[in-house]
């Protein structure tokens, strides 16, 4: 049936105009359940003593006026002015008013009586804040809201951009089961791949879904606990963790420098949410704090529905976000249908196939206690119950089932009290006496319903079985949902026609009369009309079958498109895309609108997959923390028992103290009687002064220094955070160089770069210079730290990117250095290394690669800095030429050269950095960095240019450049000197010229002739020129002469006065 079709208006027996029949034929027993019959809406007794014979009971409209007047007079009321049809309309109006008042009364009653019994204090606090007519909603914080509403990188698309690789994303899989969670993630990953994202999968364990992931054209590897700290997460633009099971791996992302890598954590389990209140009751605050710390690390935590973030509200730090959509309900329905039969389920639950089972469901948030949704629903479906569940009024028996809460006596008692309050409230409104009812069955009996026509099942039981038994599902919630109700999706997946209020979120995806039937909420008459459309002669109508079929087809992939686009939008608004990264496709380009069912069809057809989500890490952490508390308590008890002194111990202590006092007094008496020679006063004074001087051990050599004895070279590994420690090497060839004092390894003899170069105390300049700042610290008074003929450096990134020297390559390097002659630079991390499987097909030159890494401004910045450094005229070429051959260039500061050459390179680098900083400081926007496009690139503005600076210096200064293959140790000379002589700008890189320029800057600094307010050059190392040397020599000579003069005067004074030492003790 089409969307705009107009189904006939039928009554419950398949007849048209049932409303008129109900009004005009009050005496007809088959039609006394009309829509507007007051007796049918509230079938209550006048008083408890009235006869129970059904045939003797009359409606209010059938009684004589005299009887009615007598009853009102007995109640003390005035003469009633309405008669006949006017009385009928008045009662209709009054019933609507009574419905509203009863709802408020009942709501207050439920809030006071039911919520008082909740076991969870955090749920109770939520309920106490709600009032009738309000709804419970999850309101995301400002930052997660921007993830969905932000503008993304649309402005970046309008600028020229050079990129050679797609944005990299790491995905950490907690498990590799074939379940709905894997289906959702596989679908999202495949769609994002079409937009240009490149994925690498890290699996914590193998599973059935391994083949599916390997076939997605992604890099795949397993990640064990011992490997968590050996992954360079900075290689990725973002990391996605798929479940709670990935918690331990997230710990490696909580240390510097990986704490700035964007982390997206997907949580689809409620296992931890159920345990959080228990932790508070057990006093496991440390366990809650542990989880909250991990939750805080994630930039955004994604949930598939709006219920989970409210359950996890105890851990919310403002990073919760919801992307609706999951195939779990459809998967569960189809899997359950493969293994269960409708007729068998009905037989097991006491229903027959001839029964018309109507299932009433509502909001599933308050699943452990009764929600007022069902109380209001009982009022709304009251006419429905009385019309279709009365005795002998239909060819087929109607059964109404409430699916809510838990299958416990407490919940059933709450449901009974709610039903009883409903009857009592309505009887009070109409001044009608009612027999007290103590159970749902008795209430149903007083309403005229058959025995067993109303039942209750809990959501903690076989909810799928209850749904599969139903013929019609009625969604009776009074609250407007934020997300599409999952029970409706599951009902549609079972092929059951659904009647639901016309909430906006449901109307957004479903069409009235095509996928379901809508009715205005709190409108019993509209509900009855909607229900009548699905019934024909006591069975489901053809219209109902059409609606059920269309709904089942739609439910297959409902919310799939929203889920995929939601993830794409989050990535666009969360991630930073460096200058060398190709921008991904626009979200509007996504055409995927369905889940990848074909990859999981076999599992669904067999129906043997457990879709429940459990988390072993939650149980493991509970056991660990509980064991720690038990062990701590046990140790405290044992220590207290051991420390307790017995009477024998106290007697022994007293005896020892008395003996020590005796020996002390005896020694004092002996010393007083002994004659001693005090000696000469000068000697005594000299010995006292020596004892006061502290013993310095600066000249003592530690273990690391002893290991490096006799080595020709030392490679300094530069790092700045504790997360980089696992990437550092151990042995006599390497020594750590820490750019941060708090990140320095305590058990190693690493060099403190901040102590050697105070400029690095300023985080602004430390971020600007990066590894080059550590090189400047070594070059500053290098003789005090490095006394070997060769020196090398290596960034910790080299180990993270698998390009550090192997043991074999280290041996080759050491042997080659011993027989090397002349200036040679050996390097092993090449510039064109961009990642496995991501090599560009385009031929990239040195300067094009530099432009790519620096937002397209490398050549301009280098040329301007070079021009300012040498004070070249504007019409002269200032960009040193670099060959366009197939040779390799150095990167990642991974090279070795003679110490003398390193000092020359440091001198050149200091002047170049100062010129670059001068251009940056004198620009119109000094706070802006034109060498980067992302926040991190702008923060580390000079780093990428300085990383390549060693190539320009080595090439034009005539140094040999030799590439060492880091794994095999194979040597290969790059850009031979003979072939580049005609291209070299040797005059600018001549040592004599550089030394003269360095002395000129030192003289200006010595005279306080600063060219600008913040002059960087004097802060990057030694300030030395001939004038300073002469002044220091003169100062040393003056001090020497003063010392000689004072000594001579002292001797003359003694000779003149005849000074003589007097004996002491006389």
Reading side by side through the largest sheet, how are the strands ordered? 18-17-16-19-21-20-22-23
Distance separating the two termini? 130 Å
General form: extended
Average the pLDDT over all residues and give the rounded result: 77
Which percent range describes the beta-strand content?
Answer: 5-15%
Number of helices: 43
Spans with pLDDT under 50 lasting ≥5 residues?
1-82, 85-129, 366-375, 391-395, 420-440, 694-701, 833-841
Give the proportion of residues in helices.
40-55%
Please provide the count of β strands.
23
Overall SS class: alpha/beta
In short:
The chain has 1066 residues and is α/β, with parallel strands linked by helices.
What do these coordinates show?
By secondary structure, the chain is α/β, with parallel strands linked by helices. 45% of the residues lie in helices and 9% in strands. The protein is built from 43 helices and 23 strands. It has an eight-stranded mixed β-sheet with strand order 18-17-16-19-21-20-22-23, sandwiched between helices. A seven-stranded parallel β-sheet has the order 3-2-1-4-5-6-7, with helices on one face. A six-stranded parallel β-sheet has the order 10-9-8-11-12-13, sandwiched between helices. Helix 21 links the parallel strand 11 and strand 12. Helix 4 runs antiparallel to helix 18 (409-429), helix 15 crosses helix 20 and helix 21 (486-493) crosses helix 24. It is extended and about 140 Å long. The protein starts with 17 loop residues before the first helix and ends in a 9-residue tail after the last helix. Mean pLDDT is 77; it is low at 1-82, 85-129, 366-375, 391-395, 420-440, 694-701 and 833-841. This is Glycosyl transferase family 1 domain-containing protein. Residues 465-540 form the Glycosyl transferase family domain. It comes from Hibiscus sabdariffa (roselle). Residues 11-34 have a biased composition (Low complexity). Pfam families: Glycos_transf_1.
């Amino acid at each position: 049936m089409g969307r705009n079709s107009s189904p006939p208006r039928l009554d419950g027996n398949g007849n048209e105009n049932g409303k008129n029949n109900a009004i005009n034929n009050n005496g007809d027993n088959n039609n006394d359940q009309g829509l507007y019959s007051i007796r049918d809406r509230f079938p209550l007794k006048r008083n408890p003593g009235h006869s129970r014979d059904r045939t003797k009971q009359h409606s209010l409209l059938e009684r004589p006026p005299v009887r009615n007047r007598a009853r009102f007079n007995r109640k003390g009321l005035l003469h009633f002015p309405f008669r006949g049809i006017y009385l009928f309309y008045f009662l209709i109006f009054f019933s609507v008013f009574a419905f509203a008042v009863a709802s408020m009364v009942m709501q207050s009653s439920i809030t006071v009586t039911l919520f008082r019994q909740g076991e969870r204090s955090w749920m109770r606090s939520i309920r106490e804040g709600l009032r009738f007519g309000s709804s419970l909603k999850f309101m995301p914080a400002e930052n997660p809201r921007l993830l969905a509403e932000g503008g993304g990188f649309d402005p970046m698309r309008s600028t020229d951009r050079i990129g050679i690789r797609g944005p990299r994303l790491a995905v950490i899989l907690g498990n590799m089961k074939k379940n709905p969670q894997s289906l959702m993630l596989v679908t999202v990953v495949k769609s994002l791949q079409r937009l240009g994202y490149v994925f690498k999968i890290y699996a914590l364990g193998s599973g059935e879904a391994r083949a599916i992931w390997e076939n997605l054209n992604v890099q795949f590897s397993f990640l064990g606990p011992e490997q968590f700290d050996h992954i360079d997460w900075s290689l990725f633009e973002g990391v996605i963790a798929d479940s709670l099971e990935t918690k331990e791996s997230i710990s490696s992302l909580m240390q510097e420098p990986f704490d700035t890598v964007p982390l997206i954590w997907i949580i689809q389990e409620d296992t931890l949410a159920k345990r959080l209140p228990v932790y508070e009751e057990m006093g496991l605050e440390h366990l809650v704090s542990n989880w909250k710390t991990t939750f805080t690390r994630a930039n955004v935590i994604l949930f598939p529905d709006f219920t989970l973030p409210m359950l996890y509200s105890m851990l919310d730090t403002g990073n919760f976000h919801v992307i609706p959509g999951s195939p779990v309900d459809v998967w569960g329905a189809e899997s359950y249908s493969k293994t269960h039969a409708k007729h068998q389920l009905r037989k097991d639950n006491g229903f027959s196939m001839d029964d018309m089972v109507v299932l009433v469901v509502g909001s599933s948030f308050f699943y452990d206690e009764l929600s007022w949704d069902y109380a209001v629903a009982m009022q709304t479906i009251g006419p429905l119950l009385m019309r279709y569940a009365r005795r002998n009024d239909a060819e087929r028996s109607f059964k109404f089932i409430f699916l809510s809460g838990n299958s416990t006596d407490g919940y059933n008692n709450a449901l009974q009290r709610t039903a009883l309050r409903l009857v009592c409230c309505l009887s009070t409104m109409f001044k009608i006496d009612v027999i007290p009812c103590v159970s749902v069955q008795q209430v149903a009996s007083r309403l005229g319903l058959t025995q067993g026509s109303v039942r209750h099942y809990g959501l903690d039981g076989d909810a799928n079985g209850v749904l599969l038994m139903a013929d019609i599902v009625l969604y009776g919630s009074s609250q407007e949902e934020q997300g599409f109700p999952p029970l409706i999706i599951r009902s549609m997946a079972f092929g059951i026609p659904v009647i639901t209020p016309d909430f906006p979120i449901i109307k957004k995806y479903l069409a009235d009369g095509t996928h379901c039937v809508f009715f205005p909420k709190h409108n019993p008459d509209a509900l009855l009309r909607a229900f009548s459309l699905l019934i024909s002669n006591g069975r489901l109508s053809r219209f109902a079958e059409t609606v059920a079929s269309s709904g089942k087809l739609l439910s297959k992939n409902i919310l799939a498109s929203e889920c995929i686009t939601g993830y794409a939008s989050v990535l666009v608004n969360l991630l930073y895309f460096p200058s060398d990264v190709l921008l991904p496709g626009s979200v509007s380009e996504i055409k995927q609108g369905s889940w990848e069912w074909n990859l999981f069809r076999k599992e669904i057809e067999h129906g043997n997959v457990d879709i429940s989500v459990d988390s072993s890490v939650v149980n493991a952490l509970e056991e660990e923390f509980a064991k720690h508390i038990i062990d701590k308590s046990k140790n405290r008890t044992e220590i207290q028992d051991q420390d307790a002194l017995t009477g024998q111990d106290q007697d022994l202590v007293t005896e020892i103290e008395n003996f020590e006092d005796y020996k002390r007094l005896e020694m004092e008496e002996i010393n007083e009687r002994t004659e001693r020679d005090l000696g000469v006063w000068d000697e005594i004074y000299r010995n006292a002064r020596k004892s006061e001087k502290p013993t310095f051990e600066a000249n003592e050599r530690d273990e690391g220094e002893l290991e490096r004895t006799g080595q020709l070279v030392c490679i300094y590994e530069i790092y700045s955070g504790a997360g980089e420690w696992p990437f550092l090497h151990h042995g006599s060839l390497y020594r750590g160089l820490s750019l941060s004092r708090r990140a320095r390894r305590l058990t190693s003899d690493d060099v403190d770069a901040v102590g050697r170069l105070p400029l690095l105390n300023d985080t602004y300049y430390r971020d600007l210079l990066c590894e080059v700042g550590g090189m400047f610290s070594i070059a500053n008074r290098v003789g005090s730290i490095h006394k070997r003929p060769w020196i090398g450096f290596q960034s910790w990134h080299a180990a993270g990117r698998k390009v550090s020297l192997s043991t074999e390559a280290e041996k080759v390097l050491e042997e080659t250095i011993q027989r090397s002659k002349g200036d040679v630079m050996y390097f092993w991390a090449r510039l064109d290394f961009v990642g496995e499987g991501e090599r560009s097909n385009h031929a990239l030159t040195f300067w094009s690669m530099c432009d790519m890494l620096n937002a397209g401004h490398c050549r301009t910045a280098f040329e301007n800095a070079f021009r300012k450094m040498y004070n070249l005229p504007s019409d002269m070429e200032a960009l040193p030429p670099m060959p366009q051959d197939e040779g390799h260039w150095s990167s990642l500061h991974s090279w070795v050269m003679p110490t003398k050459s390193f000092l020359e390179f440091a001198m050149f680098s200091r002047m170049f950095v100062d010129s670059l900083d001068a251009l940056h400081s004198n620009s119109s926007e000094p706070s802006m960095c034109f060498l980067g496009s992302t926040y991190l690139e702008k923060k580390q503005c000079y780093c990428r240019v300085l990383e390549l600076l060693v190539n320009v210096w080595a090439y034009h200064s005539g140094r040999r450049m030799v590439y060492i293959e880091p794994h095999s140790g194979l040597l290969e000379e790059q850009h031979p000197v003979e072939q580049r002589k005609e291209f070299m700008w040797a005059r600018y890189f001549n040592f004599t010229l550089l030394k003269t320029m360095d002395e000129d800057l030192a003289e200006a600094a010595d005279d306080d002739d600063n060219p600008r307010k913040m002059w960087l050059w004097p802060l990057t190392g030694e300030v030395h020129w001939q004038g300073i040397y002469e002044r220091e020599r003169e100062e040393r000579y003056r001090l020497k002469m003063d010392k000689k003069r004072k000594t001579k005067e002292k001797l003359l004074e003694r000779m003149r006065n005849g000074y003589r030492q007097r004996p002491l003790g006389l």
